[in-house]
Amino acid sequence: MSKLLDLQFLAGHAHYLLFIVLMMTGLFIVVDKTNLVKKIVGLNIFQVSVFMFYVSIGKVKGGTAPIFPMDDKYHVDTAAMAGQVYSNPLPHVLILTAIVVGIATTSLGLALIVRIRESFDTIDEEDILAIEQDMTREDNKKHGNAMGGLA
Amino acid sequence: MADTAQVVEHTARTLRDHLPVLQVLVPFVTAPLIVLLGSRRLAWPLAFIASAVALVISFIMLMEVREGGMLTYTMGGWAPPLGIEYRVDAANAFVLLLISLIGTVVLPFAYASFRDEIKSRDHTLMYACWMLCFTGLLGMVATGDAFNVFVFLEISSLSTYVLVAMGADRDRRALTAAYDYLIMGTIGATFFVIGLGMLYMATGTLNMADMADRIADQGMNRTVRSGFAFIMVGMGLKVAMFPLHLWLPKAYTFAPSAVTVFLSATATKAALYVMMRFTFSVYNPDFAFATNTLEIIFIPLAVIAMFSASFVAVFQTNFKRMLAYSSIAQVGYMLLGVALLTDTGLTAAILHMFNHGLTKGLLFMGVGAYVLRANGSFYTQIAGLGRKMPITTGAVVIGGLSLIGVPGTAGFISKWILVEAALERAPEHAMFLAIAVAIVLSSLLAVVYVWRAFEVLYLSEPDPNSTATEAPLMMLIPMWILAGGCIWFGFSTELLHDTAVQAANGLLQGSQGMLVIPDQGGAH
User: Fold this and answer.
1) What predicted TM-score, i.e. pTM, was given to this entire model?
2) Beta-carbon separation of A144 and B158 below 8 A
3) For residue A2, is it within any domain?
């Protein structure tokens, strides 16, 4: 690892790199965009990157399904399996669950946006913030004089 | 038959063996039942019965494990490392008791409060959501399977977002509060899943105890370490650890009163429990990186939270918002206890979790009563209510004193033990002496903000147009149960303290791993 850029290492870990790029893209969109729908899109990209990460770690070289006949009649040919890539089903199943959770989150987020649009008449975060600041200022004008106006 | 694997053993199971799963299952089944029956009259009684059953179960389990030992339950009879296992020891049983106690006590209050704050057509679904949130919190704590924690975390979070958003009937800012919480909560939960993925990559298992064994065998490597970082940040968001707390004040301020009571007393505590479980049971406290993270990152953050959040709380004009900021400060005390890495520190953290649950639950219920009678919780609106609502305000005073940590209240006990824990480590480094002083000083800030509320409640002139009268009995009884708890546990410390010590010992020993043969319920 003395080289500055170890190409072989990078190629071998390409899926991790993709995962990181996708994850950071998603996070950046969540933080940067002011449109609430776009934030949800970013959140989705962020979650999908994790799904990808899980699925990619489920690939095992030379593995096999953990089902063995009890009487040991069938010999497991390890030499033949060495080159094969086996998909571990567990991460896939976990991600199925996570996808369901992701869908629930997305739909709930979108439902909230609909309600926000109904009551604020905008889905832009900065506009909403301005409206909320006005509301807070109003609150303070009305209620800020507790404790003799010291608050 | 020669083949032993084919012999199926049938062991008679009693109801007692199924307690760990019933704890989660009862509210879990109640939620769809409420929706399917669709009856507004039946929703509340069903929810209350389910909560009461959960309370009884958690109490029985705590009594069984408080002397040590654990209860395990294997889902569908699949043996633990492969199947999902529920594992209850003193630490979870204690948190389960807190959650189900608060859930049960708050429901009568919620009945009165929802009637005032929420449109009546939404009530049925509100209680269903409430039950789901309750299930999620209980499940997170009861399970011994790491991925299961995530699933239950999301169950509780998603229903929490809905519950918070229901505050929109009173103030539309509840919607954006729920949205912000959704974004941050999902990022937190996803970070947690990334951490789990890394742990799964390194260990090939999802059972927490098995994970702990394998991490201990292979020692640390970069994957395991980054997994730790992701899990801590993810859970830190849920706990509202200092720089990750931004969702909390808004969500607590605009959520319906009863929801705020329930969340403040349970949600952050369940997440904190998961954090402790991962730091101490899955990761070994012997690992230098875990210790360093706690000492170098958690202690400063906890101390900053104690001061900055208390300081902000002093200048609030809304009682509810003030209490929300105080919650962030109190989470700081708990994290400090965890980060001290001693028996005493962890005992203090666990005790403070329980005591703060009682105290904050009580105070937010007071807020709910003021919202009901005075239509708001701004200091101008609650001015002078001490004279108009003496019974409510009496309970609030007890809660306030417990929040400060006045001797004779529950809050004093846990803060005292926390100071003791810091002083215990003072010979090592002068920093710990400073921390002990910081705990006392930040409690003085609590005196300031609590006193402001008292002054408004008792010494200000009430609004001449105010028609506020005493809160209904449905609200007063839950409040005084918790107020009684605050005083009772301030004097009779054995029960809680012994259990907390047991829980702390159990956590600090690290995991006992898979080697411990489950007492019952295991597939033999």
Assistant:
1) 0.90
2) no
3) no
